[in-house]
Design brief:
By secondary structure, the protein is mostly beta strands. It is 0% helix and 59% strand. Strands 2, 4, 5, 6, 9, 10 and 11 form a seven-stranded mixed β-sheet that branches. A four-stranded antiparallel β-sheet has the order 1-3-8-7, with no helix packed on it. A hairpin with a 2-residue loop joins strand 9 and strand 10. It starts with a strand and ends with a strand.
């Protein structure tokens, strides 16, 4: 059983910052990529950033600059530092992890954490 547990969401004023964390747990799960997606009301889920276990990242240009991903492989944890937040960043942020159980590639999602940017 693999679980992803996110934390760090909440209400923040425009221009503020938040740091999201996601911890993966589960035996025999060899994690390769961990990262973040978000889904705003009425919109499709979109990629924020993904980081591999060797530090390479995949991040859309629209997410660069204000969102920084980092990982602690020893703790199976991925972080998302979000700065200069805007109301348009309001969304549920989901942690995603991909890796192998045995020889089978699997992907898992966290339950999501709400980020609300409002004055």
């Amino acid at each position: 059983q693999v679980q992803l547990v996110e934390s760090g969401g909440g209400l923040v004023q425009p221009g503020g910052s938040l740091r999201l964390s996601c911890v993966a747990s589960g035996s025999d799960f060899s994690i390769y990529g961990m990262g973040w997606y978000r889904q705003a009301p009425g919109k499709e889920r979109e990629l924020v950033a993904i980081m591999s276990n060797v530090g390479s990242t995949n991040q859309p240009d629209s997410m660069k600059g204000r969102f920084t991903i980092s990982r602690d492989n020893a703790k199976n944890t991925v972080y998302l530092q979000m700065n200069s937040l805007e109301p348009e960043d309001t969304a549920v942020y989901y942690c995603n992890a991909g890796g192998y159980i045995g020889t089978t590639l699997r992907y898992y999602w966290g339950q999501g954490t709400q980020v609300t940017v409002s004055s």
